[in-house]
Design goal:
Layout: E1 3-23, E2 26-42, E3 47-52, H1 58-64, H2 68-83, H3 94-99, H4 105-127, H5 131-139, E4 146-155, H6 159-171, E5 176-180, H7 185-198, E6 203-207, H8 220-232, E7 237-239, H9 247-254, E8 260-262, H10 269-277, E9 283-284, H11 293-304, E10 310-311, H12 319-331, E11 338-341, H13 361-365, E12 367-368, E13 372-374, E14 377-379, E15 389-390, H14 394-397, E16 406-410
Parallel strand pairs: 4-5, 4-11, 5-6, 6-7, 7-8, 8-9, 9-10
Antiparallel strand pairs: 1-2, 2-3, 2-16, 4-14, 12-15, 13-14
Helix pairs in contact: 4-11, 5-12, 6-7, 7-8, 10-11
Bound molecules: magnesium ion.
Magnesium ion binds near residues 207, 209, 239 and 264.
Keywords: Lyase
Protein name: Mandelate racemase/muconate lactonizing enzyme family protein
GO molecular function: lyase activity
Length: about 425
């Protein structure tokens, strides 16, 4: 593959009017969602695609001041300079080239992740095989193209709201319902109890990245009690119950016996493995868009193989990211579940009442066509590379909007 051109487009999907969500001790305002579309072109005119971001975590972007706009500039600047004109045989070779660019660790990983995915797309197109087949060959697995999905939704609502949403999600056939608690310890307890009561076979997961955003307002003892409460009620997992870097906190909570998940906030695939090594997690959530692409995630998956920890990709964003992670699930050993974020007006879900979290039209419009989602299962496309067409019209239709996508406003206390 002779790389001739690397482009990055920062795009924004407005949430208009903005939405305010009440959490314990404050209000979270949702303004837009950002995506960086990466397009890599070879000398023979083939294009490979990926999505990326300055960060996997809204909180990090907000607090560390990185923006998707500056990330796109970096990709088109020093990253493009390092790889345009280069010839690579295998996608993994891109990592050494990007390592040679002097960038902050997180930005370097994000760039390497996007380029790895785009090059796998190109490599698949070159040899006429879907990415999952390339992975299957390398890891000697038989790809599974029918992938069960769990729905990711539910953001700071009253218990009634979560229950109504979960019932819709169960009707749609999803394996699980993951939601974001954080409305206060009493409300969070009531939510778990009511969800378990009102759903039948479907699993319940809690994504509590909010709790560590609450500063000291819950406190460690309360967090521990809530984790135990969720586990006692059969929660499938409790995700990011403590700040991502708090390894000791994970280990302490694991002693309760509660199933824990985490990993999305790690700055690299090495960080994923390090987190897994604590032995505290039951589920490791790497993402091809944030953890050094397929190459990096496969390192973490290899670590998980034959251990008491399952790799379940984090996946939050567009359908392009969904398909990218789906190829990993289909082709990697022992990975059998994928996150499906549910946004408003999702064209592949029957939307009455709409189970979506908030509008994110770009998530759907970025693809020309739709993923094959039916009854809570995704069939991974079998065309060459990612097997999908990107609608480059989104570059015109979703201009970048400066500023953070979300704001946390804390009540005075
Ligand atoms: Mg999460």
């Amino acid at each position: 593959m002779d790389i001739s051109d690397v482009r990055g487009y920062a795009l924004s999907s407005p949430i208009d009017p903005h939405q305010d969500r009440l959490f314990f001790g404050g209000t979270r305002r949702l303004l837009k969602r950002d995506v960086v579309l990466i397009v890599v072109e070879t000398r023979d005119g083939e294009q490979g695609y990926a999505t990326a971001g300055a960060s996997s975590s809204a909180m990090r972007e907000y607090f560390e001041g990185e923006s998707q706009g500056t990330f796109a500039d970096i990709v088109e600047g020093s990253v493009a300079d390092a790889i345009e004109g280069e010839t690579v045989e295998q996608p993994a070779e891109i990592h050494d080239l990007i390592d040679s660019v002097d960038l902050p660790e997180r930005i370097q990983t994000e760039a390497a992740s996007a380029l790895d995915v785009a090059l796998f797309d190109l490599r698949g197109k070159e040899v006429g095989a879907p990415i999952y087949e390339l992975l299957g060959e390398e890891y000697d697995t038989t790809p599974t193209v029918e992938i069960p999905l769990y729905a990711s939704a539910g953001m700071y609502m009253q218990p009634d709201g979560y229950v109504e949403q979960a019932e819709r999600i169960e009707d749609l056939g999803f394996m699980g319902y993951k939601y974001r608690p954080g409305i206060g310890p009493d409300g969070d307890r009531e939510t778990v109890e009511r969800l378990v009561e009102s759903t039948d076979e479907m699993e319940i997961m809690l994504d509590v990245h909010t709790w560590w955003k609450l500063g000291e307002s819950y406190g460690r003892d309360t967090v521990r009690a809530l984790v135990e409460h969720a586990a006692d009620h059969g929660a499938y997992w409790v995700e990011e119950p403590v700040e991502p870097s708090d390894r000791a906190g994970y280990v302490e909570l694991a002693e309760t016996g509660a199933p824990l998940a985490g990993g999305e906030s790690e700055a690299s695939s090495a960080g994923l493995v390090e987190l897994a090594r604590t032995g505290a997690l039951d589920y490791l959530q790497g993402d091809v868009r944030h953890h050094n692409g397929y190459t990096g995630c496969l390192t973490a998956i290899e670590y998980c193989t034959n251990r008491e920890i399952a790799f379940v990709p984090h996946n939050f964003g567009t359908w392009l990211g969904l398909i990218a992670n789906a190829h990993l699930v289909a082709g990697a050993p022992e990975v059998r579940l994928l996150e499906y974020p549910v946004f408003e007006r999702d064209p592949v879900l029957d939307g009455t009442p709409d189970p979506g979290m908030y509008p994110f039209d770009l998530a759907f419009d970025i693809l020309d066509g739709q993923p094959a989602v039916e009854n809570g299962q995704l069939t991974v496309p079998d065309g060459p590379g990612l097997g999908i067409d990107v609608d480059l019209g989104v570059i015109e239709d979703y201009p970048f909007i400066e500023g953070p996508w979300t704001e946390f406003h804390y009540d005075d206390r």
